[in-house]
């Protein structure tokens, strides 16, 4: 297995992996998303290639910080094919993502994960990540629908 950049030819397999992650996506949608991901210099898509088969993917985005000098990385997606879990694929992808983040000048890496993904939380903790939900909250608002009046 080796870690490599994702390319447009990975779209069919990436669509299958996103489905496993709980985000069903058409091949057309994935190709469209790859178009803007692959062109963004602050975004990285890396894959774990197991003899020509994409066994997992990590998506990483680098953001500058205004309150201190530096940048941070956010792992926006990590998925390992169900048949390849518990084989070190996730650890290899995380190590590669952290290396990319360091090379980009990031001070830390942030991971967000759905509250129901308990096994993923344990995985991140084994890698040294700390759940900071006691110190910070995350607020999200859709920008695709008009705001509701008060």
TrEMBL record:
InterPro entries given for it? Answer: Acyl_CoA_acyltransferase, Bact_Acetyltransf, GNAT_dom
The record's keywords, sorted A to Z, are:
Acyltransferase, Transferase
Q: What PROSITE patterns does the record tag this protein with?
A: GNAT (PS51186)
- Residues in domain N-acetyltransferase? 1-146
Q: Name one Pfam family in it.
A: Acetyltransf_1
Superkingdom of this entry's organism? Bacteria
| Keyword Acyltransferase among record annotations | yes
Q: Supply the name of the protein.
A: N-acetyltransferase domain-containing protein
Q: Whose protein is this, by species?
A: Actinoplanes ianthinogenes
């Amino acid at each position: 297995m080796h870690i490599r950049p994702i390319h447009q030819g990975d779209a069919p397999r990436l669509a299958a992996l996103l489905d496993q992650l709980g985000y069903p996506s058409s091949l057309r949608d994935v190709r469209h998303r790859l178009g803007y991901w692959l062109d963004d210099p602050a975004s990285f898509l890396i894959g774990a290639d197991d003899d020509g088969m994409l066994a997992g993917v990590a998506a990483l985005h680098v953001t500058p910080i205004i309150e201190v000098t530096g940048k941070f990385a956010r792992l926006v997606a990590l998925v390992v094919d169900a048949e390849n879990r518990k084989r070190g694929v996730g650890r290899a992808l995380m190590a590669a993502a952290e290396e990319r983040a360091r090379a980009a000048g990031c001070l830390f890496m942030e991971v967000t994960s759905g509250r129901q993904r308990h096994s993923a939380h344990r995985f991140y903790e084994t890698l040294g990540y700390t759940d900071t939900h006691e110190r910070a909250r995350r607020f999200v608002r859709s920008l695709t629908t008009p705001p509701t009046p008060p």
